[in-house]
Amino acid sequence: MADTIPVTVVGAAGRMGRKLVAAVCGDPGTSLAGAVETPDHPGQGADAGLLAGVGALDVKVTASLPALLEKTGVVIDFTVPASTLKTIEACAKRGVPVVTGTTGLSDEQKEEVGKLARKIPVVLAPNMSVGVNLLFHLVELAAGMLGPGFDIEIVEAHHRLKKDAPSGTALRLLEVAARARDWKASDSARFCREGMIGQRPEREIGVQTVRAGDIVGDHTVIMAGAGERIELTHRAHSRDNFAAGAVRAVHWIVGRDPGLFDMQDVLGLANG
Ligand code: NAD
């Protein structure tokens, strides 16, 4: 255990939190140092390994992150935006790097994360899957090559419990596609269509949301021109791939200088 990276998971009893605990324990280079949940969570005091279905780990779920930071090498946080900001604030005070996949951060919250990332390295990625990060790359390439004669539409589908919409991944796909066209994402986005909407403007990127059942996460980018179309689709079959990506980011972030990074950096896809 001596040369493993001690990781604390915030949101440890959540859907992703339990996958993250399992992934951290399953990786020979990382070990679970702590597990944090809200004070009123029924999982308080439980063994994080039992909650995650990987057997007892002798790590109890607790409510206080700062108390764990002394023995933590990296914190992983998949919770809600306000909680993630608190996590990064606490880690910035103690010089502990953070890997977070929380989505739904406002522009102000992202700006705050950027400021805190001057003190510590932070990986903030709306989607930690390797496949989705390759999709970002392919969409940028295709949107640029096909040019404005091809309309771009993004469709995402997730489970009924997801709190934010559109997904962080869909918003990132919007940014990537807009950048390939030299458009501003906020000016081109069209999140809703209803009624007599008239002809589709040329500089528009539609982003549509589906919420149903237990869909883990589907993203399709349609690029349709005259007489043909391309559809690029990624489907997540389980949350395991997000957790594996987060553990990959843990290995990457150790020893980095402060800064705000994403999975493109972790996977070596940035600026390439
Ligand atoms: P969830 O609701 O199942 O889990 C969130 C957990 O965080 C809950 O157990 C909740 O009690 C806990 N929590 C909330 N506030 C907290 C606080 N202050 N301290 C400690 N724990 C706190 O949600 P989920 O499906 O696991 O998703 C969590 C986040 O991760 C969402 O923003 C989701 O969109 C995002 N997500 C990202 C990726 C990715 O690859 N980046 C993949 C899946 C989900």
Write a structural description.
The relative contact order is 0.15. By secondary structure, the protein is α/β, with parallel strands linked by helices. The mean pLDDT is 96. Strand 10 (217-225) and strand 11 (228-236) form a beta hairpin. The protein has a seven-stranded parallel sheet with strand order 3-2-1-4-5-6-12, sandwiched between helices. A five-stranded mixed sheet has the order 8-9-7-10-11. 35% of the residues lie in helices and 24% in strands. The longest helix is centred in the middle third of the chain and has 17 residues, at 130-146.
Which tags fit this structure?
binds nicotinamide-adenine-dinucleotide, alpha/beta, 5-stranded mixed β-sheet, 272 residues
Secondary-structure map:
Blueprint: E1 5-10, H1 15-26, E2 30-36, H2 48-52, E3 61-62, E4 74-77, H3 81-94, E5 98-100, H4 107-116, E6 121-124, H5 130-146, E7 151-158, H6 168-181, H7 185-188, E8 189-190, E9 205-211, E10 217-225, E11 228-236, H8 240-253, E12 259-261, H9 263-266
Parallel strand pairs: 1-2, 1-4, 2-3, 4-5, 5-6, 6-12, 7-9, 8-9
Antiparallel strand pairs: 7-10, 10-11
Helix pairs in contact: 1-8, 3-4, 5-6
The structure holds nicotinamide-adenine-dinucleotide.
Nicotinamide-adenine-dinucleotide (NAD) binds next to helix 1.
Strand/helix succession: EHEHEEHEHEHEHHEEEEHEH
Strand count, sense and barrel status of the largest sheet are: 7 strands, parallel
- Averaging pLDDT over every residue, what do you get? 96
Structural class from helices and strands? alpha/beta
Q: Care to count the β-strands? A: 12
Give the helix proportion (percent range).
Answer: 25-40%
Form type = elongated
Distance between the termini: 36 Å
Amount of beta strand: 15-25%
* Rg from Cα: 20 Å
**What topology, given as strand order, has the largest sheet?**
3-2-1-4-5-6-12
In DSSP terms (H or I, runs of 4 or more residues), the helix count works out at: 9
Query: Would you identify the regions where 5 or more consecutive residues have pLDDT less than 50?
Result: none
Ligands bound here?
nicotinamide-adenine-dinucleotide
